[in-house]
Amino acid sequence: MPVIAVIGAQWGDEGKGKVVDMLAEKAGVVVRFAGGDNAGHTVVNQYGTFGLHLIPSGIFYSHTVCIMGNGMVINPSVLIDEIDQLNRRDVATKQLFISDRAHVIMPYHTLLDGLEEKWRGGKALGTTGRGIGPAYADKVARMGIRTGDLLDKEAFLERLRSILDYKNAILTKVYEVSPLSLDTIYGQYCQYGERLAPYIREITIMLEEALAREELVLLEGAQGALLDPDFGTYPYTTSSSPLAEGSCLGAGLSPTRIDRILGVFKAYCTRVGGGPMPTELGDETGDLLRESGHEYGTTTGRPRRCGWFDAVAARFSSRINGFTGAAITRLDVLDALPRLKICVGYKLNGQTIDYFPSSIAALDRCQPIYEELPGWQVPISHIRDYEQLPVEAQQYVARLEELISCPMNLISVGAAREQTIHKMPIL
Ligand code: IMP
Hints:
Elements: E1 3-8, H1 16-23, E2 27-32, E3 41-45, E4 48-52, E5 65-68, E6 73-74, H2 76-88, E7 96-99, E8 103-104, H3 107-120, H4 132-140, H5 153-174, H6 182-196, E9 200-201, H7 204-212, E10 216-220, H8 244-251, E11 260-266, E12 269-271, H9 284-292, E13 305-307, E14 309-310, H10 311-321, E15 325-329, E16 339-348, E17 351-353, H11 360-365, E18 367-374, H12 391-404, E19 408-412, E20 420-422
Parallel strand pairs: 1-10, 1-11, 2-5, 2-10, 5-7, 6-8, 7-9, 11-15, 14-16, 15-19
Antiparallel strand pairs: 3-4, 12-13, 16-17, 16-18, 19-20
Protein backbone atom coordinates (compact mmCIF):
# COMPACT_ATOMS: atom_id res chain seq x y z
CA MET A 1 0.00 0.00 0.00
CA PRO A 2 1.29 3.44 -0.80
CA VAL A 3 1.90 6.72 0.94
CA ILE A 4 -0.41 9.54 -0.12
CA ALA A 5 0.22 13.16 0.85
CA VAL A 6 -2.94 15.30 1.02
CA ILE A 7 -1.92 18.90 0.43
CA GLY A 8 -3.79 22.19 0.62
CA ALA A 9 -3.29 23.79 -2.78
CA GLN A 10 -4.46 27.37 -2.12
CA TRP A 11 -4.52 29.52 1.03
CA GLY A 12 -5.78 26.81 3.38
CA ASP A 13 -9.35 25.81 4.27
CA GLU A 14 -9.69 23.80 1.05
CA GLY A 15 -11.44 20.89 2.76
CA LYS A 16 -8.48 18.63 3.51
CA GLY A 17 -10.20 17.38 6.68
CA LYS A 18 -13.07 15.86 4.74
CA VAL A 19 -10.74 14.30 2.16
CA VAL A 20 -8.48 12.77 4.81
CA ASP A 21 -11.45 11.55 6.86
CA MET A 22 -12.73 9.79 3.74
CA LEU A 23 -9.44 8.26 2.65
CA ALA A 24 -8.60 7.25 6.22
CA GLU A 25 -11.16 4.46 6.05
CA LYS A 26 -8.57 2.33 4.28
CA ALA A 27 -5.51 3.81 6.00
CA GLY A 28 -3.34 2.17 8.62
CA VAL A 29 -1.79 5.47 9.60
CA VAL A 30 -2.54 9.19 9.25
CA VAL A 31 0.25 11.63 10.07
CA ARG A 32 -0.37 15.34 10.43
CA PHE A 33 2.95 16.89 9.50
CA ALA A 34 2.82 20.68 9.94
CA GLY A 35 1.25 23.60 11.75
CA GLY A 36 -0.57 23.65 15.03
CA ASP A 37 -3.95 24.81 16.26
CA ASN A 38 -3.95 27.58 13.65
CA ALA A 39 -5.55 24.88 11.49
CA GLY A 40 -9.18 23.89 11.65
CA HIS A 41 -10.19 20.71 9.86
CA THR A 42 -13.92 20.19 9.67
CA VAL A 43 -15.12 16.62 9.63
CA VAL A 44 -18.78 15.59 9.34
CA ASN A 45 -19.58 11.92 9.97
CA GLN A 46 -21.80 9.57 11.96
CA TYR A 47 -20.52 11.02 15.25
CA GLY A 48 -21.51 14.58 14.29
CA THR A 49 -19.61 17.66 13.16
CA PHE A 50 -16.08 18.23 14.46
CA GLY A 51 -13.62 21.09 14.09
CA LEU A 52 -10.25 19.45 14.68
CA HIS A 53 -7.32 21.77 15.22
CA LEU A 54 -4.54 19.38 16.11
CA ILE A 55 -5.62 15.75 16.00
CA PRO A 56 -5.36 14.09 12.57
CA SER A 57 -8.66 13.68 10.73
CA GLY A 58 -8.30 9.87 10.72
CA ILE A 59 -9.20 9.68 14.41
CA PHE A 60 -12.77 8.51 13.70
CA TYR A 61 -11.65 5.05 12.54
CA SER A 62 -10.70 2.73 15.38
CA HIS A 63 -8.22 0.82 13.18
CA THR A 64 -6.34 3.95 12.05
CA VAL A 65 -3.25 5.08 13.94
CA CYS A 66 -3.10 8.88 14.11
CA ILE A 67 0.26 10.54 14.52
CA MET A 68 1.03 14.16 15.30
CA GLY A 69 4.34 14.52 13.52
CA ASN A 70 7.62 16.16 14.46
CA GLY A 71 6.80 19.04 12.09
CA MET A 72 3.91 20.21 14.25
CA VAL A 73 3.84 22.76 17.06
CA ILE A 74 1.47 21.60 19.77
CA ASN A 75 -0.37 23.59 22.38
CA PRO A 76 -0.87 20.92 25.09
CA SER A 77 -3.86 22.61 26.65
CA VAL A 78 -5.68 22.75 23.29
CA LEU A 79 -4.73 19.14 22.59
CA ILE A 80 -6.00 17.88 25.96
CA ASP A 81 -9.22 19.75 25.37
CA GLU A 82 -9.57 18.18 21.93
CA ILE A 83 -8.91 14.68 23.30
CA ASP A 84 -11.49 15.22 26.06
CA GLN A 85 -14.08 16.52 23.62
CA LEU A 86 -13.62 13.54 21.31
CA ASN A 87 -13.80 11.08 24.23
CA ARG A 88 -16.97 12.74 25.54
CA ARG A 89 -18.53 12.16 22.12
CA ASP A 90 -17.51 8.47 22.10
CA VAL A 91 -14.53 8.84 19.79
CA ALA A 92 -11.59 6.89 21.25
CA THR A 93 -8.07 8.30 21.18
CA LYS A 94 -6.16 5.11 22.04
CA GLN A 95 -4.65 5.13 18.56
CA LEU A 96 -3.29 8.67 18.89
CA PHE A 97 0.48 9.25 19.13
CA ILE A 98 2.59 12.39 19.36
CA SER A 99 6.13 12.61 18.06
CA ASP A 100 8.57 13.28 20.88
CA ARG A 101 10.28 15.66 18.45
CA ALA A 102 7.21 17.90 17.92
CA HIS A 103 7.57 21.34 19.47
CA VAL A 104 5.43 22.68 22.28
CA ILE A 105 3.60 26.00 22.23
CA MET A 106 4.43 27.81 25.46
CA PRO A 107 2.52 30.72 27.05
CA TYR A 108 5.16 33.19 25.84
CA HIS A 109 4.56 32.09 22.24
CA THR A 110 0.88 33.04 22.28
CA LEU A 111 1.66 36.21 24.22
CA LEU A 112 4.41 37.24 21.78
CA ASP A 113 2.24 36.40 18.75
CA GLY A 114 -0.24 39.06 19.91
CA LEU A 115 2.45 41.58 20.92
CA GLU A 116 4.33 41.20 17.63
CA GLU A 117 1.13 41.70 15.65
CA LYS A 118 0.41 44.87 17.63
CA TRP A 119 3.99 46.04 17.02
CA ARG A 120 3.44 45.61 13.25
CA GLY A 121 0.47 47.98 13.47
CA GLY A 122 -1.05 48.57 10.03
CA LYS A 123 1.27 45.91 8.60
CA ALA A 124 -0.04 43.16 10.91
CA LEU A 125 -0.02 39.75 9.22
CA GLY A 126 -3.42 38.74 10.54
CA THR A 127 -2.09 35.61 12.28
CA THR A 128 -4.44 33.28 14.11
CA GLY A 129 -2.87 34.44 17.39
CA ARG A 130 -2.07 30.86 18.42
CA GLY A 131 1.67 31.39 18.94
CA ILE A 132 2.57 29.52 15.76
CA GLY A 133 5.17 31.95 14.35
CA PRO A 134 7.01 32.46 17.67
CA ALA A 135 7.08 28.68 18.30
CA TYR A 136 8.61 27.89 14.90
CA ALA A 137 11.01 30.82 15.30
CA ASP A 138 12.20 29.26 18.57
CA LYS A 139 12.55 25.89 16.89
CA VAL A 140 15.03 27.20 14.32
CA ALA A 141 16.68 29.47 16.87
CA ARG A 142 17.27 26.28 18.90
CA MET A 143 15.28 27.68 21.76
CA GLY A 144 12.27 25.40 21.54
CA ILE A 145 10.83 22.86 23.94
CA ARG A 146 9.80 19.54 22.47
CA THR A 147 7.09 17.22 23.70
CA GLY A 148 9.76 14.71 24.72
CA ASP A 149 11.30 17.35 27.01
CA LEU A 150 8.14 17.37 29.14
CA LEU A 151 8.83 13.79 30.16
CA ASP A 152 12.11 14.57 31.95
CA LYS A 153 11.08 17.04 34.64
CA GLU A 154 14.55 17.94 35.89
CA ALA A 155 16.02 18.62 32.47
CA PHE A 156 12.82 20.45 31.51
CA LEU A 157 13.15 22.80 34.49
CA GLU A 158 16.71 23.71 33.56
CA ARG A 159 15.83 24.32 29.93
CA LEU A 160 12.70 26.29 30.73
CA ARG A 161 14.60 28.45 33.26
CA SER A 162 17.19 29.58 30.74
CA ILE A 163 14.67 30.12 27.92
CA LEU A 164 12.25 31.99 30.15
CA ASP A 165 15.02 34.32 31.40
CA TYR A 166 15.50 35.39 27.80
CA LYS A 167 11.77 35.59 26.98
CA ASN A 168 11.10 37.66 30.09
CA ALA A 169 13.85 40.09 29.08
CA ILE A 170 12.06 40.56 25.74
CA LEU A 171 8.65 40.84 27.38
CA THR A 172 9.70 43.41 29.97
CA LYS A 173 12.33 45.42 28.07
CA VAL A 174 10.96 45.45 24.53
CA TYR A 175 7.23 45.15 25.06
CA GLU A 176 7.14 46.55 28.60
CA VAL A 177 4.69 43.93 29.88
CA SER A 178 4.90 41.80 33.04
CA PRO A 179 7.26 38.82 33.11
CA LEU A 180 5.90 35.26 33.18
CA SER A 181 6.36 33.07 36.24
CA LEU A 182 8.70 30.10 35.96
CA ASP A 183 6.91 28.21 38.75
CA THR A 184 3.48 28.61 37.19
CA ILE A 185 4.55 27.53 33.71
CA TYR A 186 6.69 24.70 35.02
CA GLY A 187 3.88 23.35 37.21
CA GLN A 188 1.32 23.61 34.44
CA TYR A 189 3.51 22.02 31.75
CA CYS A 190 4.60 19.17 34.08
CA GLN A 191 0.90 18.37 34.44
CA TYR A 192 0.43 18.47 30.69
CA GLY A 193 3.45 16.19 30.33
CA GLU A 194 1.95 13.65 32.75
CA ARG A 195 -1.38 13.71 30.95
CA LEU A 196 0.14 13.38 27.48
CA ALA A 197 2.94 10.93 28.38
CA PRO A 198 1.04 7.84 27.13
CA TYR A 199 0.76 9.43 23.70
CA ILE A 200 4.33 10.74 23.29
CA ARG A 201 6.84 8.49 21.58
CA GLU A 202 9.48 7.93 18.93
CA ILE A 203 7.57 7.77 15.67
CA THR A 204 9.96 6.81 12.87
CA ILE A 205 10.07 3.13 13.82
CA MET A 206 6.29 3.01 14.02
CA LEU A 207 6.03 4.43 10.50
CA GLU A 208 8.68 2.08 9.15
CA GLU A 209 6.77 -0.88 10.60
CA ALA A 210 3.49 0.31 9.08
CA LEU A 211 5.17 0.61 5.68
CA ALA A 212 6.70 -2.86 6.07
CA ARG A 213 3.16 -4.17 6.70
CA GLU A 214 2.18 -2.41 3.45
CA GLU A 215 -0.44 -0.28 5.17
CA LEU A 216 -1.79 2.84 3.51
CA VAL A 217 -0.18 5.90 5.09
CA LEU A 218 -1.76 9.33 4.68
CA LEU A 219 0.22 12.49 5.25
CA GLU A 220 -2.27 15.16 6.25
CA GLY A 221 -1.33 18.70 5.35
CA ALA A 222 -2.44 21.81 7.18
CA GLN A 223 -2.83 25.31 5.68
CA GLY A 224 -2.10 25.63 1.96
CA ALA A 225 0.75 26.00 -0.52
CA LEU A 226 0.26 29.77 -0.91
CA LEU A 227 0.93 30.15 2.84
CA ASP A 228 4.30 28.40 2.55
CA PRO A 229 7.12 30.59 3.94
CA ASP A 230 9.26 29.97 0.84
CA PHE A 231 6.74 29.90 -1.98
CA GLY A 232 3.72 31.66 -0.51
CA THR A 233 2.94 35.35 -0.31
CA TYR A 234 5.80 36.05 2.10
CA PRO A 235 5.67 37.58 4.71
CA TYR A 236 1.92 36.99 4.70
CA THR A 237 2.41 33.29 5.22
CA THR A 238 2.42 30.82 8.03
CA SER A 239 5.67 29.53 9.53
CA SER A 240 5.82 25.86 8.55
CA SER A 241 5.77 24.29 5.11
CA PRO A 242 2.36 23.02 4.02
CA LEU A 243 3.90 21.64 0.79
CA ALA A 244 4.38 18.02 -0.25
CA GLU A 245 8.08 18.67 0.38
CA GLY A 246 7.23 19.61 3.97
CA SER A 247 5.32 16.38 4.46
CA CYS A 248 8.52 14.31 4.33
CA LEU A 249 10.33 16.45 6.84
CA GLY A 250 7.37 16.93 9.13
CA ALA A 251 6.46 13.24 9.26
CA GLY A 252 9.98 11.79 9.22
CA LEU A 253 9.64 9.98 5.89
CA SER A 254 11.98 9.93 2.93
CA PRO A 255 10.71 11.58 -0.30
CA THR A 256 11.26 8.21 -2.00
CA ARG A 257 8.40 6.75 0.07
CA ILE A 258 5.71 9.07 -1.25
CA ASP A 259 3.65 7.55 -4.06
CA ARG A 260 0.85 10.03 -4.63
CA ILE A 261 0.42 13.72 -3.94
CA LEU A 262 -3.19 14.83 -3.88
CA GLY A 263 -3.73 18.59 -4.18
CA VAL A 264 -6.96 19.78 -2.56
CA PHE A 265 -8.47 22.83 -4.28
CA LYS A 266 -11.64 24.66 -3.45
CA ALA A 267 -13.79 25.40 -6.53
CA TYR A 268 -13.15 29.09 -5.85
CA CYS A 269 -10.58 30.91 -3.68
CA THR A 270 -10.61 31.99 -0.06
CA ARG A 271 -8.06 33.53 2.23
CA VAL A 272 -8.04 34.57 5.91
CA GLY A 273 -5.72 37.25 7.28
CA GLY A 274 -3.65 39.80 5.36
CA GLY A 275 -1.75 39.59 2.09
CA PRO A 276 -2.51 39.83 -1.62
CA MET A 277 -5.25 37.79 -3.28
CA PRO A 278 -5.66 38.84 -6.93
CA THR A 279 -9.15 37.38 -7.49
CA GLU A 280 -10.72 38.67 -4.26
CA LEU A 281 -14.29 39.91 -4.74
CA GLY A 282 -15.49 42.87 -2.70
CA ASP A 283 -18.99 42.68 -4.21
CA GLU A 284 -22.21 40.71 -3.73
CA THR A 285 -20.74 37.64 -5.50
CA GLY A 286 -18.03 37.55 -2.82
CA ASP A 287 -20.72 37.84 -0.15
CA LEU A 288 -22.74 35.07 -1.78
CA LEU A 289 -19.72 32.74 -1.82
CA ARG A 290 -19.04 33.57 1.85
CA GLU A 291 -22.60 32.95 2.95
CA SER A 292 -23.40 29.87 0.90
CA GLY A 293 -19.96 28.39 1.62
CA HIS A 294 -20.11 29.33 5.35
CA GLU A 295 -16.71 30.88 4.81
CA TYR A 296 -15.85 31.78 8.37
CA GLY A 297 -12.63 30.54 10.00
CA THR A 298 -12.93 27.28 11.98
CA THR A 299 -10.23 28.52 14.35
CA THR A 300 -10.87 32.24 14.69
CA GLY A 301 -14.38 32.70 13.27
CA ARG A 302 -13.04 35.47 11.02
CA PRO A 303 -14.92 35.99 7.73
CA ARG A 304 -12.84 34.59 4.89
CA ARG A 305 -12.02 36.71 1.87
CA CYS A 306 -13.66 35.08 -1.16
CA GLY A 307 -12.94 35.24 -4.87
CA TRP A 308 -12.89 33.41 -8.19
CA PHE A 309 -10.70 30.39 -8.85
CA ASP A 310 -7.16 31.56 -9.59
CA ALA A 311 -5.63 29.18 -12.11
CA VAL A 312 -2.33 31.07 -12.22
CA ALA A 313 -1.88 30.40 -8.49
CA ALA A 314 -3.22 26.85 -8.93
CA ARG A 315 -0.70 25.99 -11.66
CA PHE A 316 2.09 27.41 -9.51
CA SER A 317 0.89 25.32 -6.58
CA SER A 318 0.70 22.22 -8.76
CA ARG A 319 4.22 22.84 -10.06
CA ILE A 320 5.89 23.28 -6.68
CA ASN A 321 4.03 20.35 -5.10
CA GLY A 322 4.14 17.95 -8.03
CA PHE A 323 0.51 16.93 -7.66
CA THR A 324 -0.28 13.54 -9.13
CA GLY A 325 -4.00 14.21 -8.76
CA ALA A 326 -6.48 16.75 -7.43
CA ALA A 327 -9.63 16.96 -5.36
CA ILE A 328 -12.00 19.83 -5.96
CA THR A 329 -14.19 20.76 -3.04
CA ARG A 330 -17.32 22.86 -2.53
CA LEU A 331 -18.40 22.71 -6.14
CA ASP A 332 -21.99 22.94 -4.87
CA VAL A 333 -21.31 26.42 -3.44
CA LEU A 334 -21.30 27.69 -7.04
CA ASP A 335 -24.80 26.28 -7.71
CA ALA A 336 -26.62 29.62 -7.69
CA LEU A 337 -24.28 31.58 -9.94
CA PRO A 338 -25.36 32.28 -13.53
CA ARG A 339 -21.79 32.93 -14.77
CA LEU A 340 -18.47 31.70 -13.40
CA LYS A 341 -15.06 33.23 -13.83
CA ILE A 342 -11.64 31.61 -13.78
CA CYS A 343 -8.50 33.72 -13.62
CA VAL A 344 -6.18 32.48 -16.37
CA GLY A 345 -3.53 35.20 -16.33
CA TYR A 346 -2.55 38.48 -14.70
CA LYS A 347 -2.01 41.95 -16.11
CA LEU A 348 1.04 43.44 -14.45
CA ASN A 349 2.39 46.85 -15.45
CA GLY A 350 0.60 46.64 -18.80
CA GLN A 351 2.03 43.17 -19.58
CA THR A 352 0.20 39.84 -19.51
CA ILE A 353 1.92 37.32 -17.27
CA ASP A 354 1.07 33.70 -16.52
CA TYR A 355 3.26 33.14 -13.46
CA PHE A 356 2.75 33.83 -9.76
CA PRO A 357 5.12 36.68 -8.79
CA SER A 358 7.28 36.22 -5.70
CA SER A 359 6.94 39.88 -4.71
CA ILE A 360 3.80 40.75 -2.79
CA ALA A 361 4.00 44.32 -4.12
CA ALA A 362 3.85 42.93 -7.67
CA LEU A 363 1.09 40.47 -6.78
CA ASP A 364 -0.88 43.31 -5.24
CA ARG A 365 -0.74 45.15 -8.56
CA CYS A 366 -1.77 42.11 -10.61
CA GLN A 367 -5.15 42.45 -12.30
CA PRO A 368 -6.81 39.12 -13.01
CA ILE A 369 -7.60 38.18 -16.60
CA TYR A 370 -10.79 36.15 -16.57
CA GLU A 371 -12.32 33.51 -18.71
CA GLU A 372 -16.10 33.13 -18.30
CA LEU A 373 -18.12 29.96 -18.24
CA PRO A 374 -21.86 29.44 -17.82
CA GLY A 375 -23.13 28.36 -14.39
CA TRP A 376 -25.48 25.37 -13.89
CA GLN A 377 -27.98 26.96 -11.48
CA VAL A 378 -29.40 23.70 -10.13
CA PRO A 379 -28.51 21.91 -6.87
CA ILE A 380 -25.79 19.25 -7.26
CA SER A 381 -25.21 18.09 -3.64
CA HIS A 382 -27.17 14.86 -4.20
CA ILE A 383 -25.15 13.79 -7.27
CA ARG A 384 -22.62 10.93 -6.91
CA ASP A 385 -21.68 10.21 -10.55
CA TYR A 386 -19.66 12.59 -12.65
CA GLU A 387 -21.83 11.95 -15.70
CA GLN A 388 -24.91 13.02 -13.73
CA LEU A 389 -23.49 16.50 -13.13
CA PRO A 390 -25.03 19.24 -15.30
CA VAL A 391 -23.00 19.70 -18.43
CA GLU A 392 -21.93 23.21 -17.28
CA ALA A 393 -20.51 21.76 -14.05
CA GLN A 394 -18.63 19.11 -16.05
CA GLN A 395 -17.27 21.87 -18.30
CA TYR A 396 -16.12 23.86 -15.28
CA VAL A 397 -14.37 20.85 -13.71
CA ALA A 398 -12.80 19.87 -17.04
CA ARG A 399 -11.45 23.39 -17.51
CA LEU A 400 -9.94 23.40 -14.01
CA GLU A 401 -8.40 20.00 -14.67
CA GLU A 402 -6.85 21.32 -17.86
CA LEU A 403 -5.54 24.47 -16.18
CA ILE A 404 -4.13 22.68 -13.12
CA SER A 405 -2.64 20.02 -15.41
CA CYS A 406 -3.37 17.00 -13.28
CA PRO A 407 -6.21 14.48 -13.18
CA MET A 408 -9.22 15.24 -11.00
CA ASN A 409 -9.72 12.32 -8.63
CA LEU A 410 -12.45 13.58 -6.31
CA ILE A 411 -15.18 16.18 -6.46
CA SER A 412 -16.86 17.17 -3.22
CA VAL A 413 -20.43 18.46 -3.40
CA GLY A 414 -21.21 18.74 0.33
CA ALA A 415 -19.69 18.42 3.78
CA ALA A 416 -20.67 14.78 4.46
CA ARG A 417 -18.39 11.87 3.54
CA GLU A 418 -20.86 10.47 1.03
CA GLN A 419 -21.32 13.79 -0.77
CA THR A 420 -18.41 12.96 -3.00
CA ILE A 421 -17.97 12.08 -6.66
CA HIS A 422 -15.14 9.63 -7.26
CA LYS A 423 -14.16 10.72 -10.75
CA MET A 424 -10.94 8.78 -11.06
CA PRO A 425 -9.23 6.39 -8.60
CA ILE A 426 -6.32 7.93 -6.68
CA LEU A 427 -4.35 4.69 -6.69
P1 IMP B 1 -0.30 31.88 11.71
O1 IMP B 1 -0.13 30.56 11.06
O2 IMP B 1 -1.27 31.87 12.86
O3 IMP B 1 1.00 32.52 12.06
O4 IMP B 1 -0.99 32.87 10.65
C1 IMP B 1 -0.30 33.32 9.48
C2 IMP B 1 -1.27 33.43 8.30
O5 IMP B 1 -1.70 32.13 7.90
C3 IMP B 1 -2.54 34.21 8.61
O6 IMP B 1 -2.94 34.91 7.44
C4 IMP B 1 -3.56 33.13 8.92
O7 IMP B 1 -4.88 33.55 8.68
C5 IMP B 1 -3.12 32.05 7.94
N1 IMP B 1 -3.48 30.71 8.38
C6 IMP B 1 -2.88 29.96 9.33
N2 IMP B 1 -3.48 28.78 9.46
C7 IMP B 1 -4.47 28.76 8.56
C8 IMP B 1 -5.43 27.77 8.19
O8 IMP B 1 -5.49 26.65 8.72
N3 IMP B 1 -6.31 28.13 7.22
C9 IMP B 1 -6.25 29.34 6.59
N4 IMP B 1 -5.37 30.28 6.89
C10 IMP B 1 -4.48 29.99 7.87
